[in-house]
Design a protein that fits this description.
The chain is mainly β and about 100 residues long. It has no helices and 9 strands. The protein is elongated and about 50 Å long. The termini are far apart.
């Protein structure tokens, strides 16, 4: 089993010094296994909150309230439901803030 992920940047725009919400979703793609997978998402370190769907999907939503740039590291462990093999990938997400003033 092989799977891929990338780094992501979510941008919030607002007035100088105000808190704004940066949000988006990240995904992993599993290949060459049985085709039936389970996903376990978790936050390893840093900033950001994982949305409700953390086990059943290759996609997960993330949000952060920012007034500066922050980053967080999130992890997904994919398990092949037929063969039982697992792989883990970590994804770095930057929650960026851009002033519109």
């Amino acid at each position: 089993m092989v799977f891929t992920a990338a780094s992501y940047t979510f941008t919030a725009t607002g007035a100088v010094g105000s808190n704004q919400t940066a949000s988006g979703s990240i995904a992993v793609t599993a290949q060459y296994g049985s085709g039936s997978y389970t996903y376990a998402w978790s936050k390893v370190s840093g900033y950001g909150t994982i949305g409700a769907s953390t086990t059943a999907s290759a996609n997960v939503s993330l949000t952060a309230t920012v007034k500066s740039s922050y980053s967080g590291v999130f992890q997904c462990t994919v398990t092949d439901a037929v063969y039982g093999s697992t792989m883990t990938v970590q994804v770095t997400v930057t929650f960026d803030y851009v002033s519109n003033a």
